[in-house]
Amino acid sequence: WRGVGLLLGAPADGATATQDWLMACLVAGFVSPDAQREAVRKAAEQMLRAETVEMTELAIPLLCLIGAGEDACSHLQARGRWEQAASLAKTALESRARVRVLRRWANQLQSRGDSARSIEILLSLGLMEEVPTRLREICTMPCFPPPRRRIPACP
Description:
Elements: H1 2-8, H2 17-31, H3 33-50, H4 53-65, H5 69-78, H6 82-92, H7 95-111, H8 115-124, H9 131-140
């Protein structure tokens, strides 16, 4: 187990950091399934801390392999990759976790003014009780700017 710790402790800026972290996952598999799961989680955390697209692309499937798909979706959402997180949620998560991930996306869309798309997501999830509130918000939004001057009626 000490060797796994040494491999996981490789500095992120090292030339072989990714190889070392993945090797730690492999070696931990010879120790026990729990050790492997923990090594994979730590390796994924290291990769996500590096905050590069390449490392994120490696970390997300690792999290899914150990049953942490909802965490993977959260990391994608935190990086602004909402649609990729939604696709992952639809294909890899059980119902309640999928609803949590997609509801966060609907809320994010609502907050940036994309109410129609937010409502579509809520409807697809069967969250009918949340739709009337969103519809009322749309109806209270001004669709057109108010006129600058009154137009006289035609005779």
